[in-house]
Amino acid sequence: MIRGPGWAVVPAFTTPRRDRLGECGQVLVIFVFALGALFAILAMVIDVGNIWSNSLHVQQAAEAAAMAGVPSMPGDFPTASAKATAEAQRNGFSTAAGATVTPTINIESNRRLDVTITRSYGTFFMRLLGINTVTISRTATAEYTLPVPMGSPLSAYGDNSGNFWAAAMTQGANRGYGDAYGTYYNPSPTLNNQYDYRGYQYTIDVPVGAGTTNVDLYDPTFCAVDANKGTGDHWIAGPTTGMSTYYTLWSDPAETPLDYTDDVQVASSGTLFENKRQADKDPGPPDLRDTGISGYASMPDCQSDPYHNQWWTLASLTSPGSYRLQVTTTNPLNSNDQIGVSAENMWGLRAVSTDPTYKARVYGLGKMVIYANVPNGQAGFYLGRIEAVHAGKTMVIQLFDPGDAQGNSSIEILQPTATDYVPISFNYTADSNAGGSKSGTTTSLKTTINGSTQYNNSWVTITVPLPKTYAAPLPATETTPGVLGGWWKIRYTYSSATSDTTTWQVSIRGNPVHLVLP
To answer: Is the peptide bond before 187 cis (omega within 30 degrees of 0)?
Structure first.
């Protein structure tokens, strides 16, 4: 400091009051601007978060709508569109709510359905910037793939050329006998939670140019018989009343394979094979499965029944297209009629066209029951056709109650190659009912060991990853005319003669309906 006269002390520097007030004003202005920026950021965070959340809702609604509508593709787009729109509305996206739902046929495949949902949402703080609404639009694509054809690559299914028949157990039989879906008990009085009163479905594909095509059933009636005679029909327990089998043929003019509600009935066996309490008593070694049944001696002899061991024409088709044969043992007019009956009916199916050049194809649809009646040794069966479009995906094979045998039995999965059918390594898991190995990797699954069934009343799930180079080849060793490429086989090896009922399912993981990622 500077000492002046009188020793007065004066500060060396002084700040005028108005300068200090100016600094405070600047700080206030900065604070106001900072506060404004903070509010703007907060506004953006709130609005952007709200937009993101609403975008998820729109996307999920579009996906649900596409999944709901695609089963009606490709033949009935109006219904597909209506179902998609209705599903979007159930999720809150309707015209009244300000949303626009636009279903369209995908340009890459008519089995795909695109659904676009557009809706505007009000903003909060962004209104201060003049942005009152934000429009959100999202598109989802769903696709369906037809179920894997199973059991037969030809015009016949279960004609005894491969030692097997199609099978159906009565509603009152126990699931553990091998029919996973047609049986009511697991075992009685416990109910089978997989019971399906609709039974099993089989496809008859009639090509253009086939001419009139007869749909024939072999031995469609129930007639108890020795295991080595005819189809092998037999009682399991009972009977209190006769066994009933119902065959209904449907057409699908709308071309919606996954939607049965629009199918049109073409023919039906009606009550023709209802309440059949009879046995084939042709001289020979009796079948102890039947002779031990109460009342066997008084049963009518059905060896001369016109529907026993004979082909019977269910319908004559004059138009090409895809037809569905439904087979059930549940009386459609009396759902409890067969609960007290325990028996099994085996039968065959063929489609015979007037023009042999254009042959129909017959195969199981989604799930089926096989009755294998084979001697000791090996027996191979067509399992399912996996087309090249599934390259890189995973094939899933589900076998229920496989390999009931007296001695030893095992199962192999045979992959088609350009040269032959080759056993492959596969992964497997089994449910809690399994008595054998519940998981592992193998090329040969042991299903019976010294007469001890390893998978009685048990589902065994086999998974086979398909290489990206998979091309559905036709092996050079395939000698059956008309077989298409891509048919896989299953091979049983038995140490003794065996009669075995098994439920089969073959699918591609993600089928039949799934979303398609952009």
So the answer is: yes
Q: Are 380 and 490 in contact (CB under 8 A)?
A: yes
Residue type, 238: G
Do residues 54 and 116 share a domain?
yes
Cβ–Cβ under 8 Å, residues 169 and 502: no
Q: How confident is the model at residue 181 (pLDDT cuts 50, 70, 90)?
A: very high
Q: How much is the average pLDDT of 458-486?
A: 93
Q: State mean pLDDT over 127-147.
A: 86
Pair 166, 346: CB distance under 8 Å = yes
> Tokens at residue 414, please?
């045979």
Least Cα distance to 404 among 502, 293, 514 occurs for: 502
3-state SS class at 444: coil
Q: What is the pLDDT of residues 372-424, one digit of tens each?
A: 887 777 888 899 999 998 899 899 999 999 988 888 899 999 999 999 999 99
List the structure tokens of 286.
Answer: 């009796």
Give domain status of residue 44, yes or no.
yes
Tracing tokens 């009518």 back to the chain, one arrives at 300
The CATH number of residue 495's host domain is 2.60.120
- 214, 355: one domain: yes
Q: What is the extent of the structural domain holding 419?
A: 375-512
Record the pTM.
0.80
Query: 3-state DSSP call for residue 92?
Result: coil
